[in-house]
């Protein structure tokens, strides 16, 4: 029974037994025909027996060699698949027991372990790739020839087109230089973007990883924090002074004996209220903002905005499109911008609100026919305002809210030959 097991050893023993039985049978035949008794050797029976014996011996050894070779050839094919990172291919063992069977079993276990490890690595790679794609920081990967190999979604805002259309483009054509350190050749981009560089190896090749950091956003965040600290101190001092002053004014106003004194007290009370409102509005910059973005029709935003300002003579474009945004924050920004636009229009106001989607980016434009911008450089500076009673907070708050939505707000004069200004809000859209 031991010889019937499916192993190379059992197969060898069975073939040897078969060879012994054949030899015994041939010797018995030769004995019967008188080979051992001294009869003539060269007869047909003797020659046939010898030929049969040699043929059976060769056939048995050929079978042994073929089976052994076949077993290891299957292992060779499986190892070749493993070398090519294909761990799903497993050779079926001809011998399920014995040394060869154990070898195949261990080889299959190794393939299964490598397959599990590869699947886990692929899952981690997919998760990392999805994370990189969703980052708002542009990330570029260049190969050894300094050609673009990979980019994330944020590269669309950097180059104004999807990175897939720029694949295999050289770094020089993208405006980048790698000596002595990676940097932009264009002075404007160099002042805005900080380039961080590192190398990594993959499949025997070296790649260059570039991470772009928008310095302007970081500077504005630091500037905003500084203003918040200043506003916190000023608000505290002003409120401490306004409270007793307002109380005394209310008492003195009732004691006024002349209209001139009453009018003076009214002016003082009105200016105290204005100062309190001024402090209250600037305190909005210290409030934390929670962004709740979801996809919704842009028509909903347009409807609410036009109902609030029916005097604007609206012209709407792209209201049928879907927009991924925080509707509450976006409407607050558009309301502030619309108020500024209407105040800038001395004649019959004409406002245009449009939405365009391109390369995972949404561009919302609000255009007016007012007098335009007289000093664009100081638009987002706190306490700066061209209005007679402006606090210099509206545009800075709009910029702050837009950046909290991972967007960008730009204000410029119209470039289509007409008088007026244009506010452009750019929001990143998730990949579908």
Description:
With 432 residues, the chain is an alpha+beta fold. It has 4 domains: 2-117, no CATH class; 132-214, Beta-Lactamase, CATH 3.30.450; 217-286; 294-428, Heat Shock Protein 90, CATH 3.30.565. The strands form 4 sheets. The chain has a 5-stranded mixed β-sheet, covered by helices on one side. It has helices spanning 8-32, 44-83, 98-134, 155-159, 187-192, 215-255, 259-282, 298-308, 327-344, 394-404; strands at 139-142, 148-151, 176-177, 183-184, 193-202, 205-214, 294-297, 315-317, 322-325, 352-358, 361-367, 407-413, 421-428. 50% of the residues lie in helices and 17% in strands. The chain starts with 7 loop residues before the first helix and ends with a strand. It is rod-shaped, with a radius of gyration of 43 Å. Helix 2 runs parallel beside helix 3 and helix 6 packs antiparallel against helix 7 (259-282).
Domain unit count: 4
Low-confidence stretches: none
Average predicted local confidence, pLDDT: 76
The shape, in one word, is rod-shaped
- What is the name of the CATH superfamily of the largest domain? Histidine kinase-like ATPase, C-terminal domain
CATH topology of the largest domain: Heat Shock Protein 90
Q: Which CATH first-tier class of the largest domain would you pick?
A: Alpha Beta
The end-to-end span amounts to 65 Å
Residue share in helix: 40-55%
Q: What is the H/E order? A: HHHEEHEEHEEHHEHEEHEEHEE
Helix/strand/pairing category = alpha+beta
Major sheet: order of its strands? Answer: 8-10-11-13-12
Beta-strand percentage? 15-25%
Give the CATH architecture of the largest domain: 2-Layer Sandwich
Please summarize the sheet with the most strands.
5 strands, mixed
Catalytic activity: ATP + protein L-histidine = ADP + protein N-phospho-L-histidine
Protein name: histidine kinase
GO molecular function, one term: ATP binding
Pfam families: HATPase_c, HisKA
């Amino acid at each position: 029974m031991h010889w019937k097991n499916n192993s190379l050893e059992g197969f060898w023993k069975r073939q040897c037994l078969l060879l012994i039985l054949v030899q015994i049978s041939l010797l018995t035949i030769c004995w019967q025909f008188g080979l051992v008794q001294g009869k003539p050797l060269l007869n047909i029976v003797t020659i046939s027996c010898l030929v049969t014996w040699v043929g059976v011996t060769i056939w048995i050894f050929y079978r042994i060699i073929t089976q052994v070779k076949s077993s290891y050839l299957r292992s060779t094919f499986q190892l070749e698949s493993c070398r090519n990172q294909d761990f799903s291919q497993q050779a079926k063992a001809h011998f399920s027991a014995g040394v060869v069977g154990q070898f195949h079993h261990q080889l299959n276990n190794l393939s299964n372990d490598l397959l599990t490890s590869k699947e886990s690595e692929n899952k981690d790679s997919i998760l990392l790739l999805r994370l990189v794609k969703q980052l708002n920081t542009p990330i570029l990967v260049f190969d050894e020839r300094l050609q673009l190999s990979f980019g994330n979604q944020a590269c669309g805002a950097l180059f104004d087109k999807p990175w897939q259309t720029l694949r295999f483009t050289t770094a020089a054509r993208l405006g980048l230089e790698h000596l002595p350190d990676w940097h932009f050749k264009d002075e404007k981009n160099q002042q805005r973007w900080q380039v961080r560089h590192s190398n990594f190896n993959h499949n025997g090749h070296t790649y260059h990883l570039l991470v772009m950091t928008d310095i302007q956003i970081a500077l504005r965040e630091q500037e905003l924090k500084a203003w918040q600290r200043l506003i916190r101190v000023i608000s505290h001092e002003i409120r401490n002074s306004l409270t007793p002053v307002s109380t005394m004014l209310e008492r003195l106003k009732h004691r006024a004996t002349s209209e001139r004194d009453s009018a003076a007290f009214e002016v003082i009370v009105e200016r105290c209220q204005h100062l309190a409102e001024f402090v209250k509005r600037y305190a909005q910059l210290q409030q934390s903002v929670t962004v709740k973005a979801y996809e919704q029709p842009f028509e909903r935003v347009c409807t609410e905005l036009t109902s609030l300002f029916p005097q604007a003579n609206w012209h709407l474009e792209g209201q049928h499109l879907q927009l991924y945004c925080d509707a509450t924050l976006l409407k607050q920004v558009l309301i502030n911008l619309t108020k500024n636009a209407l105040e800038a229009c001395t004649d019959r106001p004409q406002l245009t609100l449009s939405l365009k989607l391109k390369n995972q980016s949404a561009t919302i434009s609000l255009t007016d026919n007012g007098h335009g911008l007289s000093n664009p450089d100081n638009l987002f500076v706190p306490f700066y305002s061209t209005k007679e009673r402006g606090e210099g907070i509206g545009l800075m708050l709009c910029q702050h809210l837009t950046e909290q939505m991972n967007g960008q707000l730009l204000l410029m004069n119209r470039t289509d030959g007409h008088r007026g200004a244009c506010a452009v809000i750019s929001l990143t859209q998730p990949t579908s």
